[in-house]
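Here is one chain, start to finish.
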Amino acid sequence: MGLGYYMVKEVMREIGNKSREFYEFVLPPVDVVIQNDSLVVTIDMPGFDKKEIKLRIHGHILSINAKRETIDEGTIIWRQRPNTVDKKIRLPMRVKDEEDLGASAKYHDGVLTLTIPIKTGKNITVE
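Its structure:
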């Protein structure tokens, strides 16, 4: 259990780090759906505290940022769950910075649901 064991252990640790970096890039999974007169964005973010999650809409980009602290107790064999989330999503509509969205966000059981009311256009009568 000398050099060979150490090398295998280091290779496995590096694979774990790279896979976590991959998951941090790809995750979290996001669904964007139009329901009634609202755009509903559902984001899976298990393990994060709602105080750690920051949402911002600028133009047509939704930014999702979150970071959690991990406590390393014991020997880590494998770690893939992301410690940080920094994701940008293009929304199907543009939001002016000065306008009040009336948006709401709820975080329950690791799922963040953001509801953004869609301002529908005005009907134009043809004469």
